[in-house]
Amino acid sequence: MHTLARLGLMLLPLVALHGCVSAPAKPMPQTRAKPGVVVTQPAPPPVQRKAEPPKVVRAAVPEQLMADIDLAWRQFPGRTGIAVQRIDGDWITGKRFGEFFPQQSVSKMWVAMTILDQVDSGRLRLDQKVKITMSDLAVFHQPIRERVVANGAVEETIQSLMEQAITASDNTANDSLLRTAGGPEAVRNFIERKKLGKIRFGPGERLMQSQIAGLSWQQEYSIGRRFYTARSALPRERRQAALEAYLADPVDGAAPEAIANALARLAKGELLSPASTRLLLGMMERTKSGPNRLKAGVPAGWRFGHKTGTGQELDPLSTGYNDIGIMTAPDGTRYAVVVMIASTTSPIPARMAMMQAVSRAVATHHR
């Protein structure tokens, strides 16, 4: 074969292979920005931030309420603590409301709550009977005493004893409940467990009232006026020293602020079951003692439940004159109101008038 012909046949496969190789890609035409036009890159996605909680707008204490409370407090001659808390709000106001004041029978509230807490837990029953004998009688106000003396002993249900302790401030009924609950330590445990704050609880009516008077308790003091007779036989210096020691550091002392907060928590159902809460609040509204204290300043159309306390006297000084309660406005708004007079030389009508001024001011400036 001719030499040139053979060379052509050899080159044919190479030409075929060259046809199988892809041609290089043509570059994409560049987009040119028009003069005066800025070309920007796409914006990055927005950063996700946690939503801020809404600002809480707190209600302010009515200025005129504070002014009226201040006026009543300054004009009254005596060491007085006042606390007013809007239960369905977020404010509290008053005077000396963080200091300890003698409670006296106000402390019956903590006994009742301790009992009801044990009812809620199944340890006690409202219809459970409690026997009261002559050796269980207390001192001062105790209407149940006449039946005990006449019969030698009586049996009462726990609910009946609570009704008498709260509505009539019966000391023997209260001490019987205290014994049933487990004594003073049981009440102190309830106060601590529920975080009620600056509230103390004493050793019970018999021991506490004896200490305040400068006496040592004897059971015979529970009959008739024997306690008064024994107390009046003491030298005045001894009585005065005992009373001053009590006022300086009351074994049953409580801060008005702590009591107001406890009443608020009770009203909101934070301390007891719904049934027990209703029961105790109902008893407070049936209270017969102290009709001319805070209650007399509560206007018609409002509801009021309360508990009073009254301490001993050493002329011209009166001590532990108290009233605490829950005022409910016609629109359902509730206020815890606490007035505690540690000591005063002011007569009873003036004490009542000062208390009425406080409850009247709460109603007047309600909004």
Automatic annotation (TrEMBL):
Enzyme class, spelled out: hydrolase
Keyword presence, DNA damage: no
One Gene Ontology term of the molecular function aspect: hydrolase activity
Alphabetized UniProt keyword annotations: Hydrolase, Signal
InterPro entries per the UniProt record, alphabetical: Beta-lactam/transpept-like, Beta-lactam_cat, Beta-lactam_class-A
Bilayer-spanning residue ranges: none
Domain Beta-lactamase class A catalytic: 82-340
Signal sequence, start to end: 1-25
Pfam families linked: Beta-lactamase2
Top-rank taxon: Bacteria
Catalytic activity line of the entry: a beta-lactam + H2O = a substituted beta-amino acid
EC number: 3.5.2.6
Annotated region described as Disordered, given as residue ranges: 28-54
Gene3D superfamilies tied to this protein: DD-peptidase/beta-lactamase superfamily
Protein family according to the UniProt entry: Belongs to the class-A beta-lactamase family.
UniProt protein name: beta-lactamase
